[in-house]
């Protein structure tokens, strides 16, 4: 896997546009593209990496259909370091903003979805499509000017991010039937993981459960918190404490044996964790009960 990662080529903004067969300038800070003007754009690609933020509003692409009635437009955001690949049968339409990490770093700090790294599509309603298309069109019009203002382009991009954050939250609610299954599966998988009697190779991580759901860690975290009111790491910690208390009270296992059974590398780590969450040590808890 590491060897494969080393072989994946990383592109900056102008090199990536050239790779897509899109005629563009040599600017490596920000570029705005109107896909409709480039009919020969690349429809299939092996995995490649990018070193910039890519916001793409696309029409006529093949993605998993949303549960509810939506428009035919979707928004994707990829961040620097992401590996992306695609295989499309038909040309797509829409816009893209390619912007350097330096220019957008301040704006992305306020939006959690910027850390989604599995290319989760944002399905747009017709009204949302019109709002975002208007902003992308205005950004493209500004970019076409001979002396385009970078600060204006960054402002349009930031506004798009703000709307996108709201739309992702709407998507959680609109697709609640699907996402409630994700929550239920998380509870079941966490319970199975913690109740497995054999020693674990490590503590359960949010990334592990996100991978089981085929979602990025941040997207999964936002989803779980949206529907349960708690972050997945809080659920994991509560589950560990619950199982630990049960084994302290109902078994004769030593504190060290319980620690290893839960995935702690050292009993001292478990003792510190238990005291932090309950206010007392495992030994004191066992003796008091």
UniProtKB/TrEMBL annotation:
This is AraC-type DNA-binding protein. Gene3D superfamilies: Homeodomain-like (1.10.10.60). GO terms for molecular function: DNA-binding transcription factor activity; sequence-specific DNA binding. Residues 188-288 form the HTH araC/xylS-type domain. It holds the Pfam family HTH_18. InterPro entries: Homeodomain-like_sf (IPR009057), HTH_AraC (IPR018060), Tscrpt_reg_AraC-type_HTH (IPR020449). The lineage of its organism: Bacteria, Pseudomonadati, Bacteroidota, Chitinophagia, Chitinophagales. The keyword DNA-binding applies. Keywords: DNA-binding, Transcription, Transcription regulation.
